[in-house]
Amino acid sequence: MTxxTxxTxxTxxxxxxxxDPDRIKCVVWDxxxxxxxxxxxxxxxxxxxxxxxxxxxxxxxxxARGVLSSLASRSAPAVLERIDAVPRLRSRFLAPQVSWQxxxxxxxxxxxxxxxxxxxLVLVDDSxxxxxxxEALLPGVRTLGPQEVPALLxxxxxxxxxxxxxxxxxxxxxxxxxxxxxxxxxxxREEFLRWCAMRLTVGEAVAEEVPRALELAARTHRLNSxxxxxxxLRDLAATEGHTLYTARMADRFGEYGVIGAALVDRxxxxxxxxxxxxxxxxxxxxxxxxxxxxxxxxxxxxAGADEFRVTxxxxxxxxxxxxxxxxxxxxxxxxxxTAPDTAGTPGTAAEPAVLARTLHGDLPAPPAWLHVSTRKDxxx
Length: 380
Hints:
Layout: E1 26-29, H1 53-64, E2 68-74, H2 78-84, H3 87-90, E3 97-99, H4 103-114, E4 121-124, H5 128-137, E5 142-144, H6 149-154, H7 163-166, H8 168-184, H9 189-195, E6 198-204, H10 210-219, H11 230-237, E7 242-251, E8 254-265, E9 271-279, H12 288-302, E10 307-312, H13 319-327, E11 331-335, E12 353-358, E13 370-374
Parallel strand pairs: 1-2, 1-4, 2-3, 4-5, 6-13, 9-10
Antiparallel strand pairs: 6-7, 7-8, 8-9, 10-12, 11-12
């Protein structure tokens, strides 16, 4: 069953090996027989087996493209302790799982720790049995044998790499520190978020931010309103009467980078429409999505608009976005006149609809722990 295609790998023939780089956020590596040749627990000493150079090179090449790596090995937990003692090796992996639990359970835990969908994982494992177990219990996960890694790497060749992509591994490491501090923090969740001194800065996208906005359109699913494709987003953003906004976030631990993108359509008098609102899953649960949406609403009212609209295409993945829009007072207005280009949207999706609300009266306020400012005085 090597290399069967689940949801993550279902793409057209133009992709090498059928891989869709926009869907792959983390590659999970087995240890024995995959990362190295030997069986670690059978080694006569506490020294780890020597990793295969081509596997380390693949991990580094993926990291340079913004793809994370983790470990899932059915082995003694002491093996992970030995890996922890080798910083140059341990630093390559986020949320590693080394235990006797089923491989599918390890992948679930990795996805949860990283805050990404399990379907965004790819497993590399030399064992046909382990691949079959994952394919049976996690059918959305693509599984590969080690010999298929070159084809995986080839799928990323020639693609633009944004600054956020190059920094992604580092930022996830910062997130591990942030999560550890949160576990040690003596106080409520809200008190911790206040202590983090979170800052959201919103403004009209500058040229160097556009590739990241396109990346968010393609790679975000939980906090994505419409699934607008990067190509369609690029075309609309260049159309008269449209403005592309981005949101950056930072806290006491460091910079998140560009974590949100929104396209605003000003072509209808008195109305501000948002064909796409997309945010990174890294900021889920911190109020950034709500703060960005509320900023857009307030900005629209300041420009004299009476109504605010968002195009929504419900999917299996974006329940969090749907709840946010409802909490913000947006209700279904009508079916979209022209459905946005939503090719590649994951899960079963309904027809796109327009949600709307008046801009008169009180508007929702951003969370108290999040400071929001305008980076650039852009036309709303």
